[in-house]
């Protein structure tokens, strides 16, 4: 098979591992920098070009698209779909998962456990929204934030009001969520491939840090999931329409709650913690699924 990986940097751990796994299984791999792609959006023969060359003959495309280039990356991925190339994650699923508010609304519609979440536009509604989620302490999140950036724990009512009013003054869109104290600064990353949880790890925040992101000094360790956690992760990925996803859960007193569903989950932490060859499992999934023109969202925006 001929596989394209949409990535800005072939030296990144996840990209490198996918190349390694695909080549080991006898596939031809090409890394394509999304921002260097340009497109001919024609009805008779849609095409993606890269540094003057038409990108043709690919069987599958793996999007490794960073949050900062979601809009252009999704457009390039959509063009590959129009050309009949099988996407590991479809463009619609990618944009759906990147919109924090939309993704929570979709998860809520499916009855999946979530932290109580509030959303408002005007400073006049700040007090009511804080009350809505159960009062301080609350977690305030920028909708556009990634890797723990733009996530604030406000421990008092006054602090929560000040932070929310500050963000609103900057015209930033924010979510307010209940603080799951019993999680103890830890979350669980479930790695889903093709409707199955293939690996999981517990991420523990550094001392004094409520965010558990590995980029912020958190540590990862192997964890055994409960059947409910496994089921929640699979349902969350399916609700987004993602074949490959990193689903982040918290262990709340009333069961698992989903924090986020990631459409380009990193492989380094999960492979180290679980000892699983996740990259190989992704390539195996492509081998079983990739068929020309097999994209459910083709022609549906």
TrEMBL record:
The enzyme's E.C. designation: 6.3.2.-
Gene name linked to the record: rimK
GO CC field: cytoplasm
Record-linked Pfam families: RimK, Rimk_N
Positions that bind Mn(2+) 2: 260, 262
Binding-site positions, ATP: 141, 178-179, 187, 211-213
PROSITE patterns assigned to the protein according to its UniProt record, in alphabetical order: ATP_GRASP (PS50975)
SUPFAM superfamilies reported for this sequence: Glutathione synthetase ATP-binding domain-like
Record: residues binding Mg(2+) 2: 260, 262
Family listed: In the C-terminal section; belongs to the RimK family.
Domain ATP-grasp: 104-287
Protein name: Probable alpha-L-glutamate ligase
PANTHER family, sorted: RIBOSOMAL PROTEIN BS6--L-GLUTAMATE LIGASE, RIBOSOMAL PROTEIN S6 MODIFICATION PROTEIN
Principal EC category: ligase
Binding site for Mn(2+) 1: 248, 260
Record keywords: ATP-binding, Ligase, Magnesium, Manganese, Metal-binding, Nucleotide-binding, Protein biosynthesis, Transferase
Cofactor note: Binds 2 magnesium or manganese ions per subunit.
Cofactor annotation: Mg(2+); Mn(2+)
Binding residues for Mg(2+) 1: 248, 260
GO MF, one example: transferase activity
GO process terms (BP): SOS response; translation
